[in-house]
Amino acid sequence: MPELPEVETVVRAVRPHVVGRRIASARVAWPRTVGELGPAAFARRLRGLEIRSMERRAKWFTLGLPSATRPAQALLGHLRMSGRLEVQPAADPPLPWERAALLFTDGTSLRFVDVRKFGRLEVVDDPAQRLADIGPEPLEPTFTDDAFAACLGGRRGSLKATLLDPRVIAGLGNIYVDEALHRARLHPLRSVATLRAPDRARLRTAIVEVLSAALEAEGSSFDVFYRTPDGRPGSYQERLRVYGREGEACTTCGTPVRRLVVAGRGTHVCPTCQRRPRARSTRPRGAGPRPAAGRGRSSR
Ligand SMILES: [Zn+2]
Q1: How far apart (Å, rounded) are the C-alpha atoms in residues 149 and 67?
Q2: How far is the centre of ligand 1, averaged over its atoms, from the C-alpha of 297 (Å)?
Q3: Nearest to 99, CA basis, from 34, 183, 15
Q4: Class in CATH terms, 4-130
Q5: Which CATH architecture has domain 145-269?
Q6: pLDDT tens for residues 222-260?
Q7: What are phi and psi for residue 16, nearest 5 degrees?
Q8: How far apart are CA 221 and CA 1, in angstroms?
Q9: What residue ranges do the domains of the chain occupy?
Q10: Distance of CA 268 to the CA centre of its chain
Q11: Above 70 in pLDDT, residue 291?
């Protein structure tokens, strides 16, 4: 699933081809892509509007489409599993798996292609309000140690689950959470509540470093779906330290990388670099074969 570096790569590549273009018409091939609004209303809302900006917020891209009555109006898009944007001549036929398209008055068009159909496009009056519960952007200069401490404040879950929660921090997903935790030498099962200031500072630095490096590499192409809009794969998958490397040597210490499931997600750790927190017993008292055998012996 595309995370911050992949979505930012898409936005940077597509922006010059859409900002300043005016929408002549919009078409929707898969109604669920545009949600409750429906294909007809989607096309009506967008017709005649000029795209004034293209930005990213968390894993969303936003096209600024102000109108006289809706000055903050925007089209928000989420790529989810397999969504992709492509710029094409408007006269070209629909692409395979194309779910929606914006056709511009200058003869070009923006196509939303999505094999697995989980991607979404939403027209909203106020994107800031729609995305209000999303946490801070980790690559902004305002993401300081104090800001990070404030996002984590009061939380008690595992590091993995907490960092995957977009209300805590924007744009992280399974790949970059695993990579950041490895860089910070923190185990994904460790409780946020046990972090001390130096741990937090190391983790914040690791998050910023891994996202910056991945952005520079134009993201990770971990499956066949993610390509930059120019059709190239990202290259960060070649530099991943733990994610997807089960059984391979940790790049830091050589210990084989292990895969476990945390927060319902496949999670990759180096058991040497990332010490597992001391486990509390999860087995109910008196359960299992050993206590039963003990009772058996004592009754004789
Ligand atoms: Zn290691």
Answers
A1: 39
A2: 45
A3: 34
A4: alpha beta
A5: Orthogonal Bundle (1.10)
A6: 665 667 767 777 889 889 999 999 999 999 999 999 999
A7: -65, -20
A8: 10
A9: 4-130, 145-269
A10: 17
A11: no
